[in-house]
Structure formats: structure tokens, C-alpha cells
Design brief:
Blueprint: E1 23-27, H1 38-52, E2 56-60, H2 64-68, E3 75-78, H3 85-97, E4 104-105, H4 115-129, E5 138-143, H5 151-162, E6 169-174, E7 190-194, H6 201-211, H7 227-236
Parallel strand pairs: 1-2, 1-3, 3-4, 5-6, 5-7
Helix pairs in contact: 1-7
Length: about 240
Amino acid sequence: MTALPPRCAGCTCEAPAVTDPQFAVVAHGQPGNPGVLQPELEALAARVTARLGAPVAGATLACPRSLAALRGVRAIYPLFMAGGWFVNSEMPRRLTAAGVEGYAVLPPLGFDPALPALGADLARAAAAAAGLDPAETTLVVVGHGSSKSSASADATRAFAAALPPGFAQVLTVFLEEPPHLADVAPDGPAVCLPFFATNGSHTTDDIPADWGDRGPLTAAIGTTDAIPSLIAAALGRA
């Protein structure tokens, strides 16, 4: 088994669930609480493993121990919605620091061509559960956004533009740049679809608080049941 670095201060994470993986799914994680998303990533990786038939590990950039366990992987699937600084610069830097080399990097989740259809299905199901007619409902797609880079906004807008027709209109809003989710005022019924990869504080706290009671709020698209098969298909082509 790969020798792992010491745990971060205050971290209670266990040894990685998969040893000597062939592939990995890597997410951002929460720097202030490195271990919080590791169980979620490991559960996702186990579901991908079952579909792919090859060992897949889950890791976050916030957890050096999880990254060190990826030494020897053939390919990495970035569980990110955009191909910005974290995917192109910070992830390779942290993997190198953890001793991980010689791997291929696949396009991130947010760029997968199958994702818009999955998002539309998710939003339609939320509308139906609330008794709303999609043809008379606004779909609000919320992304992270950034004041420093356009990568997140560009990816969110590209996803929204690729959604199959069916809703009265589609609005694209953000948490960290205008137009902000908290300021949007849909005309009539609305459904909110978070264009996020994991269940971090943005999806569990910020989006519900900013959206309020304006209509149904779906799960973050990256946490839904179809995602493991989508990742397995991408890794199978690597």
C-alpha cells in the first residue's frame, strides 16, 4: 500500500477505501474541513468502480492523504464544473506534491456532452413533483461564478445554452458574480438547478438561503444518480 502523509490537523479521515487504484475521481473539497467530503467521494468512486469493473479511488484537493493514495493511477476524472485554474494548474501542482505522476486528465464533469440532458430531466422531475408545467416555468441555472476568472461563468452558460427545450425560459445566475441568485426574480413559477459537482457548503447552505421559497430546488447535478455511469463511460474511453 502507498505510504501516506500524516493527517491534517484535526482530521479524522481513515485510510483510503481503495488501494492501488487504476483510476480516480478528484474534487475540490472544503479546505476548512478537509475530511468532510471524502466519504462522499469514496461512495461515488465505489459506484463508478461497480460500473467500470476497475478500481477507482475518490480524492479531494483539500486532503493530501487522499491525493497521495492516487500514485500509479492511469487517468483522473476531474469532478469540477469548469476547466479553470483548479483543474489546469492547482490540481496538477497538488498531485505532483503528493507524488502522483504519469496520469491522463479527462475533461471535467461540466463539459460532458451528456450533462445537459441529465439536467433537463432533473429539472422536469422537480417541476412535476411540484405540479408545475415546464412550458410555463422558468428554469434558473445557478453556477459558482468568480470575480477573478470567466471559466465558471462560461461553463455554466454553455451548459444552460445546451439544455433541451421545454421550459418557458432559462436564466443563468451565480453565487459570486452578477447576476446573483439572491437577486433574480422569475416572472411566474420557477425551478432552480445548481450547476455544482458536490454537496459542499454552497449547495447545502448558500443556494437554499439565496433561493428561498421561490420554487423547487433540485439536487446539485453532480450528485445525482446518473453521474457514476457517466463517469464510468468517460473513464472506459481513457
